[in-house]
Every structure is written in C-alpha cells, then in structure tokens.
Design a protein that fits this description.
The protein has about 260 residues and is α+β, with helices and mostly antiparallel strands. Helices cover about 30% and strands about 20% of the residues. It starts with a strand and ends in a 13-residue tail after the last helix.
C-alpha cells in the first residue's frame, strides 16, 4: 500500500488597508497580490527522503501542480494535518486555476480531525501533539520568514522548504502514534489478497476473536485482535464463519 504524508506552506494575501487592528473587514477588492502555495513537501511511508516542489522565480504554482497531482493520484492514503480543510483544499484550488483535474475522492487521513473528535489534547496543533507525545517539535519560525520569501529571498525560500520538510517528518511520527487507536482506512489483509478476517492494519493472519457483540438489529459483530500488531478491529458474522471454518447459512434456511 502506498501511504503518503504531505504538507504545504502558503503565502499571505497582500492587501491595501486603511488601518490595522482587530475586527478589520477587508473586501476582496483590497487584494493587490493573491496568496499562493510556496512549497509542497511529501514523503512515502517506509522511504527515508522527503521530496518537495517550490514556486519558481515568478512565484507560480503551475509547475508545482503538474508534479504533485500525479503523486496524489498514486497514493492509496494521504495523511495530512488539517489537510481536508487546508493542504488538499489549496492544491485543488490551484489546480482549478490552471485548468487541471484532481481526484474528487482522495482517501485522506487527517490527524488533526481525529485528535479533535476522538482524543482530548489541550491543543490539536501538530507541534503540540509532537511535543506531548515526546517525538519532536516544529522548527521555530517568525512571520518575518514569510515576508522574506514573498520578497524573493532565495535563502528564506530554502528555509521554508526545510521547515515544511520537518513538518512532514513530524506528521509521520504523530500518525504512527495516533494510528494505534485509529480505525483502519484500508484493509491491509484484503489488499494483500487475504481474507476479510485477517488483520486490517498489518494483514497478519495471527489473529483471534476477543469478543462478540450483538447490535440492536440483532447482527453479530466480532471484535478481533491481532497477535502481531496488537490492534483491535471488527468483522462481520460472514467473515467470522470463514475464519472459524463454519459453513455459511443459505438464504433459504429456516430459523424456526
């Protein structure tokens, strides 16, 4: 399975403003230069190097989109932090600007969204999660770096790429920790041409039934645990009968 870790950095809008402060409303007509993606960094799971694309001397995103869209299409899963609302939304928007087609249904695993909905951290920012879990931190930056990049400072642009690469490495580590309590998004066992009762996380057949539950509709759900990776997952009664080598019921069988 091809699992992709992705992050991007963007420039701010440049606008005319009569004054600064809180609760300032600016119309789109105030924009004098539109924001753009500065760089995109990505890494394939089980590969060492983080790859990247950055804007050219004209600060255009067109060539970047030509490179990154095939990468996204190759991925079975795309892991991001707030990616549905930010990274992938940016990429789709820039692709639209240049008349390029993007897949409307990427399989996205959002570590920020999962942390917000299922866990109880004081903050769901990537830097906080990494620090809390003891696996590192983001490179410290100031807004001055973004201004230098916008004004064409090549050293600042290279620093921005370095900053983004570190985010991708942190993202992978955070995902690896959070995945121990995440549901599987792709059944690894079936992907490896195995049975549905095999471990959906790692594909192992060294599994056992930990518990059986009955739903309100009377359906049997079997909680399995993998002896290899230790994770829990649920299979249907049909998959359980195959696992247990029991004959399947025919549709015409009497329940009397």
């Amino acid at each position: 399975m091809r699992r992709l870790f992705l992050d991007c950095e963007t420039s701010p809008n440049q606008v005319f403003s009569w004054r600064i402060g809180y609760k300032i409303n600016l119309d789109y007509q105030n924009i004098i230069k539109e924001r753009r993606i500065i760089c995109i960094c990505w890494k394939w799971e089980n590969e060492k190097h983080v790859k990247f694309v950055k804007w050219d001397k004209n600060q255009s995103n067109e060539q970047m989109m030509k490179i990154i869209i095939p990468v996204l299409d190759e991925a079975d899963e795309i892991v991001t932090h707030n990616g549905e609302a930010f990274d992938l939304a940016w990429i789709r928007t820039m692709a639209l600007l240049y008349g390029m087609v993007t897949n409307p249904s990427y399989k996205i695993i959002d570590t920020c969204l999962f942390a917000r909905k299922k866990l109880y951290f004081n903050s769901n920012k990537l830097d906080y999660l990494a620090r809390f879990l003891g696996i590192g931190c983001k490179i410290k930056t100031e807004f001055e770096l973004w201004k230098k990049v916008v004004y064409g400072d090549s050293k600042a642009l290279n620093m921005m790429v370095k900053y983004c690469k570190q985010d991708v490495l942190l993202l992978e580590k955070v995902y690896q920790r959070l995945s121990t309590c995440m549901p599987a998004h792709t059944h690894q066992g079936v992907l490896n041409e195995g049975e549905k009762w095999s471990c959906c996380y790692c594909g192992s057949v060294r599994v056992f039934c930990d518990k059986t539950r009955i739903t309100a509709m009377g359906a049997c759900k079997h909680q399995m645990q993998c002896k290899k990776c230790g994770r829990y997952y649920t299979i249907s009664e049909t998959a359980y009968r195959v696992y247990n080598k029991q004959p399947l019921r025919s549709t015409g069988e009497s329940h009397g």
